[in-house]
Each structure stands twice: as C-alpha cells, then as structure tokens.
Amino acid sequence: MDAFHLLDANSKGWITSPELYDALQELGHHAHKELVFMFVRHFDRDNDGKLLYSDFCDAFSPKSNQQSVILGQRRAYFIHNHYHRLDFFSYETRDLFFRLFKLYFQHEETAELLRNSLQRRPYFNIHDAFAACDADKNGMISREELRELMIEYGIHLTELELTLLIDRYDKNHDGRISYSEFMDELMPRSAHHAR
Asked: Which domain holds residue 37?
C-alpha cells in the first residue's frame, strides 16, 4: 500500500498512465511515455485505462503464494506514521522498487517489438496461432496444453516459468487463456495501436 501511495499522489486508489508517468518523473525516474502506457495497459485488468491498487498488487506481488501472503499482511508503515509520500522507504528499497519498474519497461519494449514483428509477417494469423495452442478445441488454452506445446517445441519450462507465462496472458486469473486474452497479448499495445 505504501508503494502504491508513493505513485498515487492524490490517493484516488487508481492511476492512469499519464499520472504514473508524472509520478515517476517527480520521483526522479524517467521513462518513455509509451512504455508507461504499455505497462498500465498490461496490468489494467478491466481495460478502463486505470491501474487499480489490485492491478498494482498483481504487478508487484511475488508469484510464490507464501511470499505474496507475507507481503500482503504487512501494515502500511509510512502511510500510518504520516510520512510525506516523497520520504517513503529507504534509499535501497526505493532503488529496488524503481529497478523493478525499469525491468518491466524493458520487458514491455521487447514484447512490443516482437508483437510488431509478428503483425508484419504476411502469413501470421492470431486465430490460427490460438487454434494451434488449443489442443482440445474448447476455446481455452489450459496450463497442460501450454506445457505440452512448449515440450513439443523443445522448451521445457519449470513450474514457475509456466506460471509466469500463463500470468502474462491470463488477465482474469482463472488459470486459462481465452481467445480474447491471447489476442490482447499478441496485438501491438503502443498508444497509436490502442483501441
């Protein structure tokens, strides 16, 4: 909660990509507006252009259930002790927090380059790609289908890697990837491609 409040300057419980961009600038961390937009779009579960506190938790909580529970139970120290938001956290903690943001932005930039490359390939079709992954043709890609597909192509994922891959696509967190979630992940996300 402290980390979210550091960015949510007006304590609304949500932030837009321009607000996140401004907050990062204010805190001395410069990012390209397009990458901030793509970050918000990726974690904005209901696609309303707002990163809710719950969306933020999805982005910054550990994937390990045990670690996530421990972090979720921590009380908001800086808010409850009335610190000014610009004084939250030690230098080392702030540095780690913003380094994670930087990694997210780099990851989104790489993913966007790949999405754009796929769109330029004349024979690539999202529907066909989804159909190739949906082995049982039920309109959803399960964890097991994804695992089998990766093995078929010589990619052996650990359980954590498989979880992270599914989380990348599975916006509603039901453990399966729908066609719309699949399409949303593979379509370019930059602002000039946004719906």
From this structure: 2-117
